[in-house]
Amino acid sequence: MSKPVFRTKDLTKIYGSGDVEVRALDGVTMALNEGEMTVLLGPSGSGKSTFLNIVGGLDRASSGRVFYEDLELTSLSERQLTRYRREHVGFVFQFYNLIPSLTAWENVALVTEVSVDPMSPDEALAMVDLDNRSTHFPAQLSGGEQQRVAIARAIAKRPKVLLCDEPTGALDSKTGVIVLEALSHINQQLGTTTAVITHNAGIQAIANRVLSFRDGKIIDVQTNEHRIAPAEVVW
């Protein structure tokens, strides 16, 4: 039985106050398990990104508790949260956030230079099948290739967890499958606990578990007894 990497207890996030109060998360209690790939599914505004930002240390809860293994994130200072993000978490977003003036190799090297036990940029790019594009600049790469460079950058520091917010949202179906294959490969080869936000219901079948969000709550948890390969996803 996998042990939890993340645990949340009555996690709540409120934006604004008074008449304009928005309850982005409303008492979420759940766990993300070691080595699993989990899909967070739901419409825009359902709380998926807020949840991921809080467990990733990018945002703070209004109330409730969040644990990363035995470390309570909700009790950390800003400096401690920064260290937690740097040492343990890799992020992949919908937009690639690559530095245009740097090559693919140099974009990845930015992370390896400040990490405790990184893999080499060459190794990280090879993990996403881009070792033959390492000297290319972002403008010379397709959208899918840029996203895979972003994934290589995220995994180069050997994070325990990889948090992906709509990583295929800006891509067509064929390119999206290639990106999902890269994420699945990393999850299986490195054992990296991986959470993927999507509003595309077809993607859920590649995951071990699916958490369905609505109105700031988790309304359903599904376990996939038989996962499909990304190439089998119906877009």
Provide an overview of this structure.
This protein is of the alpha/beta class. The protein has one domain: 3-Layer(aba) Sandwich (Rossmann fold). 28% of the residues lie in helices and 28% in strands. The chain has six helices and ten strands; from the N terminus they run E-E-E-H-E-E-H-E-H-H-H-E-H-E-E-E. A six-stranded mixed sheet has the order 6-7-8-3-9-10, with helices on both faces. A four-stranded antiparallel sheet has the order 2-1-4-5, covered by helices on one side. Strand 4 and strand 5 (71-72) form a beta hairpin. Helix 4 crosses helix 5.
Key features of this structure:
235 residues; alpha/beta; Rossmann fold; 4-stranded antiparallel β-sheet; 6 helices; globular
CATH superfamily: P-loop containing nucleotide triphosphate hydrolases
Q: Please give the CATH architecture.
A: 3-Layer(aba) Sandwich
Number of helices: 6
- Large-scale geometry: globular
Main sheet characteristics: 6 strands, mixed
Order of helices and strands: EEEHEEHEHHHEHEEE
> What do we call the CATH topology?
Rossmann fold
Computed over alpha carbons, the radius of gyration is 17 Å
CATH C-level class is: Alpha Beta
Number of strands: 10
Q: Stretches where pLDDT falls below 50 for ≥5 residues?
A: none
Give the helix/strand class: alpha/beta
The proportion of residues in beta strands is 25-35%
Share of helix among residues? 25-40%
Mean pLDDT figure: 93
> How many domain modules?
1
Strand order of the largest sheet: 6-7-8-3-9-10
First and last CA, distance = 32 Å
